[in-house]
From TrEMBL:
EC class: oxidoreductase
Keywords: 2Fe-2S, Dioxygenase, Iron, Iron-sulfur, Metal-binding, Oxidoreductase
The keyword Electron transport is assigned to this record: no
Tagged with keyword Metal-binding: yes
A Pfam match: Rieske
GO molecular function annotations of the record: dioxygenase activity
Rieske domain ranges (all copies): 10-113
Name of the protein in its database record: Aromatic ring-hydroxylating dioxygenase subunit alpha
Species, as recorded: Kurthia gibsonii
EC number(s) given by UniProt: 1.14.13.-
Amino acid sequence: MKDEVLRNDWIVVCKEEDVKEQPLQQIVLGERIVLFRNRKGIHAFKDLCIHRGAALSLGCVKDDQLVCPYHGWQYDDEGHCTKIPQLPEGKQISQKAQAFKYGCKVAYGFIWVNLNNNNPDFFPYEEVTGGEFRNVLWGPQSVEAKPPRIVENFLDVGHLAFVHEGYLGVQDKPVIGDYRVITEDERIYTTPIDVFQPDPDGSGQSKNVYYTYEVLRPLTVRFTKEEPNNGTKMTILLTIKPVEELKSVAYGILSFNYETGQTDEEIVAFQDMIFAQDKPIVENQKPEELPLDLQAELSLKFDRLSIAYRQYLKKTGVTLGVE
Ligand code: FES
Ligand code: CO
């Protein structure tokens, strides 16, 4: 799963809280990585000891160093091998004794890795850093589909009245209010879309709201719901971890600038329920790759955000999950 664009980007791996005392194996873009925590923070290496290829994630952390389970070689958080127990006393450790280190960042409650370790820009997220919103982490949700199909489903306004009938739309109001997609430098976003929601949060009350969508990164997008009359705002960040062929994991952040009257668990459960409605659709779409040839599927006017997303993927040169 070589995709240089994604390897050059920050990819979500897991929640920060998932990394405990024991090193943790994760798979990102087909690569086995190990995450471990020491006093300096969380670090990511290839999950492979250069001695005999053992998985470092089966080892442990001792004195801030990652210890291989097989013959006890130790690595510091830069990846330098600092101890080879079998080496006769006084013998220098070879410079080549190095673990393969990835860029690793803790942000917004998640761990992100940069497989090419070239420290690209990271997208700002005011909802978490600005202090105005209550934030609830969502996921992991495994999906047997390629990431761009999952992202496009999230950006798709037309399905709400059908797949999420009774919650995010009703079938007798299927027409989507007109909207535009604005592309500025790296930013792609829609003008507000007027949407009728029969029961947007499970409280039984219908609402007319504005939806805005924004594409932040190839596999990271944001949705904002605003109520025009009272200034309440809710955003959902969706970000996808490409695991292996047809294996992806979705994560998200739900942010609210108002009192929802729901616990974190209730908010997550509602989102899980909505996502479970999308999952069989996305897992059965063909082709699995998102067609970047704009003539490949039949599009309507309301699909213009999907089209903009496809064009953006084409421009960035993403190869994974597109054709
Ligand atoms: Fe890791 Fe031998 S394989 S120390
Ligand atoms: Co949906």
